[in-house]
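A quick word before the example. In earlier lectures we treated sequence and structure as two separate objects. From today on, think of them as two lines of the same record. Here is Antibiotic biosynthesis monooxygenase written that way.
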Amino acid sequence: MYVAHNRLPIQSEDQRKMLEERFAKAGEHMKRVPGFAGFQMLRASDNSHYIVSTTWESEQHFHAWIESPHFAAAHGGQSRAAGQTQVATYEVVYNS
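And the structure line, produced from the sequence above:
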């Protein structure tokens, strides 16, 4: 399994609301993406940022998603996340 964490800084209450509304719908759409295994959206306890965590069957599935036209459509026409986001990826070593 492969996990990607995307850190999204929050600049305003309007941005927070927009992100939560947008990502509330994302989980259902992602279920149709090959290799997708799970999704979580975490809000920092100080409300400064979110972590969007996606789990994939493999690293190859994750890279296929971020290079796909569906990813670009979901991210405003961009083939990769832009702006101030920070993405970290992980290979799952142990899962219980």
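Notice the following. Residues 10 and 49 are 5 Å apart (CA to CA). We will return to this example when we discuss secondary structure assignment.
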